[in-house]
């Protein structure tokens, strides 16, 4: 299996991504989960990661707390989307599994140094503060990264937190800029993809029908998302962002994209955090990312439902 670290700010969609990864041990080995402040402050983000591991009955998964604020800016959270807890919609017990003592950034650095070079993929589901901090503190680990697969940014779909920017990039644009400049292979799952992966009532019903504890929680989470996002976007269901990262690892054939240059706006108040993506190749700038543009959404939901079936 491919070794990954999941860097995350759960978030219902983050939690579903974690479940999808933990349900796929043949393809994916989760070395650890590193929490970062984003959708909710860090204490809730690390708690929610542990809640999710326990839901999957995988309490041995190491969970680490990382950065509690972006590199240079005050934290902006998204309780208006995810609810006060970040996991509103399902009533789950407080976790009893421990939080690891090591800081998430140290765990990322130590893991990249310990594991064979080129064997660890970083999966980023929130603001990129932990990754950028690790790369700044230990530049030697950058070349040891196999690749980075992240949910963030947008091109045609433009923004969701401002008219120009997607939440994960907007919250810590300086971190995003550093990560996009790191020189390792980056795959981006932007809003252009996630807004095609809609949790419609029939797709939610197929998950509910699994009848497991995990399916019940996912149903509650998707229902919570649905109330906010369908009103916002006027679609038949809410976009399911972060699980696209794990689905890409499992089934890259479900996705198509282009190797392009992507730069991050960090100066303008108006377009802060915009992913300036050269989709049409109008610059001479060398590609630095595989920017995904399309997805087989039915294939995605079939995969997600099949994998959730394996969880208790
Ligand atoms: C991203 O922001 C968060 O609200 C979601 O968890 C996802 O990672 C979507 O813009
Ligand atoms: Ca997230």
Automatic annotation (TrEMBL):
InterPro entries in UniProt: I/U_nuclsd_hydro_CS (IPR015910), Inosine/uridine_hydrolase_dom (IPR001910), IUNH (IPR023186), Ribo_hydro-like (IPR036452)
Gene3D superfamilies the record matches: Ribonucleoside hydrolase-like
Keywords: Glycosidase, Hydrolase
Cellular component, GO annotation: cytosol
GO molecular function: purine nucleosidase activity; uridine nucleosidase activity
Pfam families recorded: IU_nuc_hydro
Residue intervals of the Inosine/uridine-preferring nucleoside hydrolase domain: 4-301
GO biological process, any: purine nucleoside catabolic process
Name this polypeptide is given: Purine nucleosidase
Lineage: Bacteria, Pseudomonadati, Pseudomonadota, Alphaproteobacteria, Rhodobacterales
């Amino acid at each position: 299996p491919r070794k990954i670290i999941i860097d995350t700010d759960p978030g219902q969609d983050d939690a579903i991504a974690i479940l999808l990864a933990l349900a796929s041990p043949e393809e994916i080995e989760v070395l650890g989960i590193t929490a970062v402040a984003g959708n909710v402050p860090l204490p809730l983000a690390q708690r929610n990661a542990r809640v999710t591991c326990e839901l999957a009955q995988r309490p041995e998964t190491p969970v680490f707390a990382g950065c509690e604020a972006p590199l240079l800016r005050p934290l902006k959270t998204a309780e208006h989307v995810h609810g006060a807890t970040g996991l509103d919609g399902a009533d789950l017990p407080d976790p009893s599994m421990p939080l690891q003592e090591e800081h998430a950034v140290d765990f990322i650095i130590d893991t990249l140094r310990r594991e064979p070079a080129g064997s660890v993929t970083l999966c980023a589901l929130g603001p990129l503060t932990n990754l950028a901090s690790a790369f700044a503190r230990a530049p030697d680990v950058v070349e040891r990264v196999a690749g980075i697969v992240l949910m963030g940014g947008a091109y045609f779909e433009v923004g969701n937190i401002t008219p120009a920017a997607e939440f994960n990039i907007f919250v810590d644009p300086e971190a995003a800029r550093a990560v996009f400049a790191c020189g390792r292979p980056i795959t981006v799952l932007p809003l252009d993809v996630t807004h095609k992966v809609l949790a419609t009532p029939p797709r939610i019903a197929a998950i509910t029908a699994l009848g497991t504890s995990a399916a019940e929680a996912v149903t509650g989470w998707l229902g919570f998302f649905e109330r906010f996002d369908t009103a916002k976007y006027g679609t038949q269901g809410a976009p399911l962002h972060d699980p696209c990262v794990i689905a890409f690892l499992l089934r890259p054939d479900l996705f198509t994209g282009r190797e392009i240059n992507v730069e991050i706006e960090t100066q303008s108040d108006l377009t802060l955090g915009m992913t300036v993506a050269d989709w049409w190749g109008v610059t001479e700038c060398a590609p630095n990312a595989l920017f995904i543009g399309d997805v087989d959404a039915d294939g995605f939901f079939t995969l997600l439902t099949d994998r959730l079936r394996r969880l208790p």
